[in-house]
Write a structure and sequence with these properties.
Radius of gyration: 18 Å
Strand order of the largest sheet: 6-5-4-7
Structural class: alpha/beta
CATH class of the largest domain: Alpha Beta
Distance between the termini: 42 Å
Shape: globular
CATH superfamily of the largest domain: Spore Coat Polysaccharide Biosynthesis Protein SpsA, Chain A
Number of strands: 7
Strand content: 25-35%
CATH architecture of the largest domain: Alpha-Beta Complex
Largest sheet: 4 strands, parallel
Number of domains: 2
CATH topology of the largest domain: Spore Coat Polysaccharide Biosynthesis Protein SpsA, Chain A
């Protein structure tokens, strides 16, 4: 098992994959231009420990799937054709979480059509969306991860907007919202917002 770290301002949220343990620790002070180096080294050593190697300049698109027979083929087609920033490759990891309809068969067929791009993983019984995402993360080899639901709720055409702050090195995590009308904004800590 390994830890994957998510740095946000002065707090590190570490999630030990496979155990579900969550810990919080203070971030060591670093120069802002060196900020991404520790996370890249951690991700690389973690993927080596699992027998996988992180693919630089690749985004892992994680798709949890449960009974989406009607939409999954369209969702996968949109993900495979979605624009990405120049020089960035993609891998799509679809985790079927015990679907009882024909979703798994559709994805297996599409994975054969797109070898090296689509990987299919099957949970024998439904474990929940969180478990499907954790399974996909364990198999992810990309430098970045995106979560894409199989029900067409999120628009893959927006991947460049989500990836832009990560590629520029000005964010460690980006959260999209279909309810936001303001565009990009930085998340403020609670007490900072109260004081201002």
């Amino acid at each position: 098992m390994f830890s994957q770290a998510l740095w946000q301002n002065s707090i590190c949220i570490a999630l030990r994959l496979g155990t579900g343990q969550l810990g919080v620790r203070q971030r060591p002070q670093t120069n802002s231009r060196d900020r991404l180096a520790p996370s890249h080294a951690l991700a690389h050593s973690a993927s080596q420990a699992m027998g996988q190697y992180m693919l630089r300049h690749c985004v892992s698109i994680l798709m949890p799937l449960y009974n989406e027979e009607e939409f999954v083929a369209t969702a996968i087609a949109r993900v495979v054709q979605a624009p990405l920033p120049a020089g960035l490759d993609r891998e799509l990891i679809v985790v079927d979480d015990g679907s009882t309809d024909g979703s798994a068969e559709i994805v297996m067929s599409l994975a054969k059509e797109h070898p090296g791009v689509i990987r299919f993983i099957h949970h024998p019984r439904n474990c929940g969306k969180g478990a499907a995402i954790r399974t996909a993360m364990q198999h992810a080899r990309g430098e970045f991860c995106l979560i894409q639901d199989a029900d067409l709720e999120y628009n893959p055409e927006e991947y460049p907007k989500l990836l832009k702050p990560l590629l520029a090195g000005v964010a460690d995590a980006v959260f999209g919202s279909r309810f936001s009308v303001a565009g990009e904004r930085r998340v403020l800590f609670f007490w900072h917002a109260v004081a201002n």
